[in-house]
Amino acid sequence: MKVTISAVLLCLVILMTGLAVAVENKGAANMVLTGGERGNVPFPHHQHQNKLVDCKICHDVFPQENGAIDRLKKEGKLKPKMVMNKQCTKCHKAKRRAGQKSGPITCKQCHIIK
Ligand code: HEC
Ligand code: HEC
Ligand code: HEC
Fold it and tell me: Whose CA is nearest to atom 12 of ligand 3?
């Protein structure tokens, strides 16, 4: 009897862990962000999640929603280049200065999709 109860409990724990993992929607692994006339910008989303861990670093400014940046810009709630200057390049420059692995900094390295 004891064995069955622990087996049932173990199954429950495994099930709930599975559910907790499934509930967090991490979004697309890779995405393309609208970059205007300069060209669109590829963005390795999961690579950033793995490296930075804290979702709020970016999602404080825009929600976890497909096309959120474009929508907020259209609604006038987010200035164009805000995410780029306050997040992308700001962080890449800081990491580079600190001698750590970093991402692109020049226009042409990011705005590559015409
Ligand atoms: C370095 C910045 C950054 C970090 C950190 C980040 N995200 Fe995102 N996320 C983005 C961008 C950019 C978009 C696209 C927004 C858009 O389409 O306008 C996005 C979109 C999303 C979306 C909606 C798009 C889709 O494919 O469903 C979800 C869900 C999401 N993120 C979840 C997360 C979670 C969960 C974390 C933390 C584990 C996280 N993000 C961390 C930048 C980031
Ligand atoms: C790290 C990648 C990155 C670099 C480097 C970068 N950009 Fe961007 N840029 C983006 C992203 C992502 C967006 C879309 C989000 C936003 O508007 O903040 C964007 C948006 C823009 C926009 C606004 C587009 C629109 O129609 O709303 C312009 C203009 C722009 N970039 C020009 C430049 C120029 C000029 C440079 C070089 C001095 C540059 N970018 C460097 C990633 C980058
Ligand atoms: C808070 C810091 C931070 C922010 C914000 C951030 N990045 Fe990065 N980015 C990094 C780091 C760190 C790396 C190096 C990752 C690695 O080595 O695994 C990187 C790497 C990259 C790479 C190169 C990936 C590769 O494998 O060569 C691209 C492209 C990139 N970032 C684009 C962006 C864009 C576009 C944004 C804004 C939407 C952004 N990043 C926002 C920290 C950041």
Answer: 102
